[in-house]
Specification:
Elements lengths: L1 E4 L7 H14 L6 E4 L4 H14 L17
Parallel strand pairs: 1-2
């Protein structure tokens, strides 16, 4: 197994391609690549909503939708 934890979102498309080729080279037959990135849909749909509900709005403004035009 090859794991890429919070890495690929920091790479250029060419670097992602090179990284995945290297992961493929390292894997035994039937091996797997696990890729984790943040923020992901779970963060936006679940975690952020719970954090927003648990934080007093007088301390920090938590917009209803934290995503921007680049997301």
């Amino acid at each position: 197994m090859v794991t890429l934890l919070d890495v690929v979102e920091h790479l250029t498309p060419d670097e992602v391609d090179q990284t995945l080729r290297e992961a493929h080279r390292l894997l035994a037959p039937g091996g797997r690549v696990v890729i984790h990135t943040l923020p992901n849909r779970f963060v936006y749909d679940v975690t952020y909503r719970l954090q927003r509900l648990s934080r007093p709005t007088r301390i920090l403004h938590w917009p209803r939708n934290p995503r921007n035009a680049y997301d």
